[in-house]
Design a protein that fits this description.
Helix content: 10-25%
Largest sheet: 5 strands, mixed
CATH topology: Purple Acid Phosphatase, chain A, domain 2
Number of helices: 3
Order of helices and strands: EHEHEEEHEEEEE
CATH class: Alpha Beta
Strand content: 25-35%
Shape: globular
CATH superfamily: Metallo-dependent phosphatases
Length: 160
């Protein structure tokens, strides 16, 4: 199973479309917030994407009616996907880890910081794909991909 995680597109529709069109084999596409209008535009241009997409509300998605977090069941794992602003991810990952555990999740996907992060901590896989439009860490715009198989979980961050 392949999951594509993208976050913080902030109006850069071309970046979002590029990521999705390069990964048409993905089972799930998860937009982690701050780009609701971009994903709406993607659904208009590519309606076939909608049924395998999850959209999360970010702090810049005011007035948009999406989920603040979402739990995704995949074979052998549960994913806690959120933008991150409600869990103070800019200062610590402790709160988001507690919330993931409370939901029985062993994979966390989040955005908000515009900084790439890929780690395995305390039995939890954690991925922030960075920003697909305006990274804050001096790297190129990026997205994440998660591969889940009976052999395990592999998470990577790639340039847009």
């Amino acid at each position: 199973m392949r999951i594509i995680a993208v976050s913080d597109t902030h109006g850069n529709y071309r970046a979002l479309e590029s990521v999705v069109m390069r990964n048409t084999d993905a089972d799930w596409i998860i937009h982690l917030g701050d780009g609701e209008r971009d994903i709406d535009r993607l659904f208009l241009a590519h309606p076939e994407i909608r049924e395998r997409s999850i959209r999360i509300s970010g702090n810049c998605d005011a007035g948009i009616n999406s989920f603040p977090y979402f739990v995704v069941e995949v074979p052998g794992h549960r994913i806690f996907a959120t933008h991150g602003h409600l869990y103070a991810v800019k200062s610590s990952l402790d709160t988001i880890k507690r919330q993931a555990r409370a939901n029985g999740c062993d994979i966390i996907l989040y955005g908000h910081t515009h900084v790439r992060y890929n780690s395995f901590e305390d039995g939890i896989y954690i991925l922030n794909p960075g920003s697909a439009s305006c990274p804050h860490d001096g790297t190129k715009p990026s997205f994440g991909h998660i591969d889940i198989s009976p052999a395990g979980v592999v998470m990577n961050i790639a340039d847009v």
